[in-house]
Amino acid sequence: MCRRVSLAGDEPIAEHISAMFDLNAVVPLRLAMELSQRFWRGRTEENAAFNRSIVNVSSTSGAYIFSNIGQSGYSASKAALHMLTCHLADEFAAFGVRANTVAPDSFPERVSTASVCDAIARVAAGDMNGRMLLLEASGASVA
Which of 21, 33, 61, 65 could in theory staple to 75 by disulfide, Cβ–Cβ 3.0 to 4.6 A? Predict the structure, then answer.
């Protein structure tokens, strides 16, 4: 669970938000880059044959503003993850690797962990590239 902080409050939050960006965007980017350099580049046919892909787990907070709950840093870091994933999808397509984002609503409270796992598996097995699958209590939609 992320710590709730307000941009309008008195608390210094720049370090807190920086840490969220590191965890939620920079670390997944570094992992994707390492995988591409070590295993995927130069193996386009093999990557396509095995339907290789990246599925990052984000949050609906990266797509919507939920007012007055102190999610600015968390939301921005998840939005950054999605945009980085879109760029990975664009660039990694050159060597047959897809990249997508699954963005559940609050889980396991509103969306079950099993639903998130099922969505990750569906996205990994499919052919979607550069998209965000929003998982909300009311159902799933692609953005």
Answer: 61
Tokens of 134: 């929003």
In a domain, 9, yes or no: no
pTM: 0.88
> pLDDT tens-digit profile of 88-99?
999 999 999 999
Instruction: Give residue for tokens 């307000």.
Output: 6
pLDDT tens digits, residue range 23-49? 999 999 999 999 999 999 999 999 999
Count how many domains the chain has. 1
Length of the chain: 143
- Beta-carbon contacts of 104 under 8 Å, excluding residues fewer than 6 positions away, are 57, 59, 60, 111, 115, 116, 119, 135, 136
Given this model, what pLDDT does residue 9 score? 64
Could you tell me whether strands 98-104 and 132-136 are parallel, antiparallel, or unpaired per DSSP bridges? parallel
The residue range of the domain holding 92 is 14-142
CA–CA separation, 29 and 80 (whole Å):
10
Asked whether residue 1 is assigned to any structural domain, the reply reads no
